[in-house]
Prior knowledge:
Layout: E1 2-6, E2 12-17, H1 20-23, H2 29-43, H3 102-119, E3 122-125, H4 135-145, E4 150-153, H5 160-166, E5 172-175, H6 182-186, E6 190-194, H7 195-205
Parallel strand pairs: 1-3, 3-6, 4-5, 4-6
Antiparallel strand pairs: 1-2
Helix pairs in contact: 2-3
Amino acid sequence: MQCDVITLANKKSGTIELDENVFGVKVRGDLVARAVNWQLAKRRSGNAKTKGRSEVKASKSKPFNQKGTGRARQGTTVAPQMRGGGVAFGPQVRSHAHKLPKKVRLLALKSALSAKQAEGKLVVLDEAKLKKINTSDLAKQFEKLNWGRALIIDGAEVDENFVRAAGNINGLDVLPSGGANVYDIIRRETLVLTKDGVEKLVERLK
């Protein structure tokens, strides 16, 4: 499929052929959801922790006599039913990460790219480079482009001047092609790919 290529000045600079096997596949919402859950699960710190009965700092002896008090018998003060005792089956420090097949991850990424293309939210940029760091000028250009909250994916490496200038603009993310992921693509309104970014993504996903 043909797609126009524009510059940061919003001028057409040619066209590019987008691979149907990457940008024109059937959108699988179920796989996109699985990929997002997989990504977010890996990010979770998993540091919620409660003390069990073996960790509570208290006397482990019998709190009162077995008989003669009129109370229910108790063997220890750290049992879960006692005030100040350990927590039964409480959360422990752990990793929430789980496995997701590579084929599922690749198809989910293709689905995310194809969804943006189908919605008309995919823009191909000639290049994302600046001669000098100037956030204000870059912000004015983005206002004219009217991309909203956008994700820009460049080639194998990103231009340092562009990244530093874009870093102070709210709602704008810049990633190399190797960092392209489902979660960041779907949570932004517009997906912007440079010509190098398109080439590297096709190499990665074919």
